[in-house]
């Protein structure tokens, strides 16, 4: 197991103890905003001011927080484990990178990125984006946050399926298992032979796809799990 390939999916729950809201918990983001208004291409076409306001507020909130014990433990795992450690995050914050993780796939994009809806050019997002901001490449007034909304294809899916098929251990941390394709990763990795572990506050919607369950706050469950992996 010393050189096992570890593939780790993270969701909003891993950043909760840093102070960022989750989506589907009581009082979470979807209790305050209608998902179809702020996280779909149609919502952006209808009211770009509202969508920019929503993501500007989240970009500001993400700039004000620090990684917690779970992010730090995963960065230590990547530094000290002899095999490959791949983090696939659904999160648009940069807390894994801030903790020191290097191999991080942002499958739902990043708050730090801007994307031209006309020509697909990407550039670093300013703290506040505005409707009609021009694209630096084609000048079209169609700048949007570089995040993946419902109905859009998540990023780096080919690489992700390959990592899942090569995984010796697959873990999902802080994700409710409601959003596909991420919710199918445990089943995919498990069928390809990985040992599957869920580390979440509570049982997720796809708890049956995991061989091992560790329920509790990520800041409490992840550091000892990492210690165990490094001591195996
Ligand atoms: C803690 C904790 C602590 C709290 N410690 N834990 C019908 C059936 C099946 C699928 C579909 C369907 N109809 C449509 C679809 C597809 C659709 C989908 O899944 N819809 C479902 C709602 C049914 N998916 C898509 O459209 C995706 N695209 C797609 O499928 O393309 C086709 C394709 C697939 C494969 C290959 C090629 C093409 C796109 C999904 C885009 C999701 N976008 C969002 C918003 C954008 C980013 C942003 O603004 O941040 O991404 S939605 C939102 O949900 C966000 C998140 O990344 C995502 C997942 O949420 P997450 O992270 O799981 O958060 P929560 O809040 O749900 O859960 C937190 C968990 O943490 C909870 O369990 C807590 O208990 C726990 N917790 N505190 C540990 N301290």
Give the tally of β-strands. 9
As a percent range, the share of strand residues is 15-25%
- Per CATH, the architecture of the largest domain is 3-Layer(aba) Sandwich
What structural class is derived from the secondary structure elements?
alpha/beta
Ligand types: ligand BJW
- The run of helices and strands is EHHHHHHEHEEEEHEHEEH
CATH topology of the largest domain: Rossmann fold
Question: How far apart are the termini?
Answer: 7 Å
Helical proportion? 25-40%
Give descriptors for this structure:
232 residues; SIR2/SIRT2 'Small Domain'; three-stranded antiparallel β-sheet; 36% helix; protein-succinyllysine desuccinylase activity; zinc; alpha/beta; six-stranded parallel β-sheet; Rossmann fold
Short summary of the structure?
This protein has 232 residues and is of the alpha/beta class.
Describe this protein's structure:
The protein has 232 residues and is α/β, with parallel strands linked by helices. It has 2 domains: 1-20 and 67-108 and 154-232, TPP-binding domain (Rossmann fold); 21-64 and 111-147, SIR2/SIRT2 'Small Domain', CATH 3.30.1600.10. The chain is built from 10 helices and 9 strands. The chain has helices at 12-16, 29-32, 35-38, 41-46, 48-63, 69-80, 95-99, 157-166, 185-191, 218-231, and strands at 6-10, 85-89, 104-106, 109-116, 122-124, 143-147, 169-173, 195-200, 212-215. The strands form 2 sheets. Strands 3-2-1-7-8-9 form a 6-stranded parallel sheet, with helices on both faces. α9 links the parallel β7 and β8 (195-200). α6 (69-80) runs parallel beside α10 and α8 packs across α9 (185-191). The protein is globular and about 55 Å long. 41% of the residues are buried.
């Amino acid at each position: 197991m010393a050189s096992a390939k570890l593939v780790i999916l993270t969701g909003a729950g891993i950043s909760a103890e840093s102070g960022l809201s989750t989506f589907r918990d009581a009082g979470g983001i979807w209790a305050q905003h209608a998902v179809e208004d702020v996280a779909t291409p149609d919502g952006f076409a209808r009211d770009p001011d509202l969508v920019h306001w929503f993501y500007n507020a989240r970009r500001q909130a993400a700039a004000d927080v620090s990684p917690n014990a779970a992010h730090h433990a995963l960065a230590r795992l990547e530094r000290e484990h002899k095999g490959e450690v791949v983090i696939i995050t659904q999160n648009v914050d940069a807390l894994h990178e801030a903790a020191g993780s290097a191999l991080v796939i942002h499958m739902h994009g990043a708050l730090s990125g801007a994307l031209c809806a006309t020509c697909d050019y990407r550039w670093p997002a300013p703290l506040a984006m505005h409707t009609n901001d021009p694209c630096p490449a084609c000048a079209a007034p169609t700048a949007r946050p570089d995040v993946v909304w419902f109905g859009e294809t998540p990023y780096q899916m080919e690489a992700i399926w390959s990592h899942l098929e090569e995984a010796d251990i697959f873990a999902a941390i802080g994700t409710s298992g409601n959003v596909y394709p991420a919710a199918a990763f445990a089943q995919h990795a498990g069928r390809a032979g990985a040992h599957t572990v869920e580390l979440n506050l509570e049982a997720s919607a796809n708890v049956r796809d995991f061989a091992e369950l560790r329920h509790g706050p990520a800041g409490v469950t992840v550091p000892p799990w990492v210690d165990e992996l490094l001591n195996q």
